[in-house]
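User: Please fill in residues for this 399-position structure.
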C-alpha cells in the first residue's frame, strides 16, 4: 500500500529552494536535507498540491509508459525517502539516527568578555577568544602544539570571551568552561584530546553556522580559500598537511565552520596525523618525527602545529575539492555540478542545525557559486599539482 499524502498543514511548513534543476527540502528547525532531482521535484510539487500517491503512479504510467508495477514501486521509494527525511510525518522530530549530522553537541553560552587569567594562553578559535589554563604537565605539552595569540609569560592586558581550565593532576583531571565542568578523566592523552575537542566544539557551534563541513580548510598564499571535503580515510588531512608545508595557511584539518555569509573560519588547532601519513609528510615536515604520540579515539596519532601564522579573519572560499587518495589509480580531476558537490558534502557527514528558509536558500546559493572538483591522486606531489590546477581553473571561472 502506498502511503497517503502529507497533511496540508505539514506541506505548508516544509522549507524548499531550488538547486539548479533540483530541489532542496527540509523541515523547519530540523537538521536533515532531502535533495530531489528534477523529476522527483515535479512529483513532490504535485504531491504537495494534494495528489495522492496512487495518482502520481498513474501519471508516471502515462508520461513515461512505465508498467503500473514499476511506477508504483518508484512512487513507494520516493515516499519512503520523503518520510525518512521527516517531510511526511505529522509531528515530532526526525529520529536522531536519521538526522543530518550528529544529534548532540555542547551548547556554548554567549561570549562574556573578561580579562585573561594570569598564566593562561589566549587562543583565537574561529570567532571567539579563549583563555586556556592547564596543569603543569599538560601546560608543557600544549605549549608545543598551540599557536596562541598571547603566551602566559606576556604581561600586556588581553580580553577573552571564555575561560577553559584544566584542573587537577594528570592522573585525575577536570576540564571546565567558564567554571562549569565539561569532563573528568585520567591520563595525559585523554586530557589533551578532551581539551582539543572542547576547543573544536566552541569554534564550530553548528546552530550559528550555515554549515560545518567535515573537511580541511586552507588559505592559498594569494589569500584564496580552499576546501577539501571528504569522509575519513580519504587522504584529505595528508593533502592538507602537504599544502600547509608548501605555504598554504591552515584553517583546520578536520572540520570547518562556514558563517551564514558563506565565509570560512579557522580553528587554529594543530594537525592531527595518523600513522599512514607520517612517511609521506616527514620529508616536508621533519619535525613530525619529534611530535609526541597521543592516543586518540583508538588511534596513535601525532599532533603537529601548522606552519605559518594563525588565520584570524573570515576567508572567502574560491572552490571546494572532494579528494580521494588512490595509489593504484591514475590521477584524475573532474568538475562537479552543484548537486554532485552537495551530495559529496552530505556523504562526508557535514553538520547543519536549525534549518530555516533563509539558511536553506543561503546554503543553495553558496553551493551554486562555489566551483567544485572531484580529485583522485596517487601520491602527494600529484595531489599538490592538481590542487594548484583547480585553483587556477576556479579563479578563471570567477565572475
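Assistant: Residues filled in for all 399 positions:
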Amino acid at each position: 500500500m502506498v502511503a497517503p499524502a502529507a497533511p496540508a498543514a505539514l506541506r505548508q511548513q516544509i522549507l524548499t529552494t531550488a538547486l539548479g534543476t533540483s530541489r532542496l527540502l527540509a523541515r523547519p528547525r530540523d537538521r536533515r536535507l532531502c535533495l530531489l532531482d528534477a523529476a522527483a521535484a515535479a512529483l513532490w510539487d504535485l504531491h504537495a498540491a494534494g495528489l495522492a500517491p496512487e495518482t502520481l503512479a498513474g501519471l508516471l504510467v502515462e508520461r513515461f509508459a512505465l508498467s503500473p508495477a514499476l511506477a508504483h514501486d518508484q512512487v513507494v521509494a520516493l515516499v519512503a525517502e520523503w518520510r525518512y527525511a521527516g517531510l511526511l510525518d505529522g509531528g515530532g522530530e526526525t529520529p536522531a539516527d536519521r538526522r543530518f549530522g550528529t544529534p548532540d553537541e555542547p551548547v556554548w553560552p554567549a561570549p562574556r568578555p573578561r580579562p585573561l587569567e594570569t598564566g593562561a594562553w589566549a587562543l583565537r578559535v574561529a570567532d571567539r577568544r579563549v583563555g586556556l589554563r592547564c596543569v603543569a604537565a599538560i601546560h608543557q605539552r600544549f605549549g608545543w602544539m598551540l599557536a596562541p595569540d598571547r603566551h602566559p609569560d606576556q604581561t600586556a592586558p588581553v580580553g577573552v570571551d571564555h575561560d577553559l581550565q584544566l584542573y587537577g593532576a594528570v592522573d585525575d583531571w577536570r576540564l571546565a568552561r567558564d567554571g562549569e565542568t565539561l569532563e573528568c578523566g585520567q591520563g595525559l592523552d585523554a586530557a589533551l584530546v578532551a581539551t582539543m575537542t572542547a576547543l573544536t566544539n566552541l569554534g564550530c557551534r553548528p546552530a550559528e553556522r550555515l554549515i560545518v563541513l567535515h573537511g580541511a580548510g586552507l588559505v592559498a598564499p594569494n589569500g584564496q580559500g580552499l576546501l577539501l571535503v571528504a569522509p575519513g580515510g580519504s587522504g584529505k588531512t595528508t593533502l592538507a598537511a602537504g599544502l600547509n608545508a608548501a605555504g598554504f595557511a591552515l584553517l583546520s584539518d578536520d572540520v570547518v565552520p562556514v558563517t551564514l555569509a558563506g565565509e570560512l573560519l579557522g580553528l587554529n588547532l594543530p594537525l592531527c596525523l595518523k600513522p599512514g601519513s607520517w612517511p609521506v609528510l616527514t620529508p616536508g615536515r621533519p619535525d613530525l618525527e619529534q611530535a609526541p604520540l597521543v592516543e586518540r579515539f583508538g588511534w596513535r596519532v601525532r599532533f603537529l602545529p601548522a606552519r605559518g601564522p594563525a588565520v584570524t579573519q573570515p576567508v572567502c572560499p574560491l572552490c571546494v575539492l572532494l579528494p580521494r587518495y588512490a595509489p593504484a589509480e591514475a590521477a584524475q580531476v573532474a568538475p562537479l555540478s552543484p548537486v554532485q558537490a552537495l551530495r559529496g558534502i552530505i556523504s562526508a557527514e557535514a553538520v547543519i542545525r536549525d534549518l530555516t528558509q533563509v539558511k536553506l536558500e543561503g546554503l543553495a546559493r553558496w553551493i551554486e557559486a562555489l566551483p567544485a572538483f572531484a580529485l583522485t591522486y596517487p601520491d602527494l606531489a600529484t595531489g599538490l599539482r592538481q590542487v594548484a590546477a583547480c585553483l587556477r581553473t576556479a579563479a578563471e571561472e570567477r565572475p
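For context: The CA atoms of residues 334 and 374 lie 5 Å apart.
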